[in-house]
């Protein structure tokens, strides 16, 4: 906001893995409601803490095969990844 000299509201949103979605939804809602005529929205999630990974691994939350296999009888956990949404 300050660097580019944008005017209007500026938000920081932290909803863990859904931060990009929440930011983009807020931008769209502001456009649809007429609160602004232009919006810049986006977010990212970068996994930088080895402690978090270690805890999830020890708790056996992470997939040993590296594949989530959602709704499959062979599912053995989930996979973590970095992500960006704009």
Automatic annotation (TrEMBL):
It comes from the Eukaryota. One of its GO terms (biological process) is fatty acid biosynthetic process. The keyword Phosphoprotein applies. Residues 1-86 form the Ketosynthase family 3 (KS3) domain. The keyword Transferase applies. Transmembrane segments: none annotated. GO terms for molecular function: 3-oxoacyl-[acyl-carrier-protein] synthase activity; fatty acid synthase activity. It holds the Pfam family ketoacyl-synt. Keywords: Phosphopantetheine, Phosphoprotein, Transferase. This is Polyketide synthase.
């Amino acid at each position: 906001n300050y660097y580019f000299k944008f005017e209007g509201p500026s938000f920081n949103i932290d909803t863990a893995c859904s931060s990009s979605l929440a930011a983009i939804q807020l931008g769209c809602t502001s456009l649809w409601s007429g609160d602004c005529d232009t919006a810049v929205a986006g977010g990212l999630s970068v996994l930088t803490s080895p402690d978090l990974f270690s805890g999830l691994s020890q708790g056996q939350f992470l997939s040993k095969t590296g594949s989530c296999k959602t709704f499959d009888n062979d599912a053995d956990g989930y996979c973590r990844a970095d992500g960006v949404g704009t």
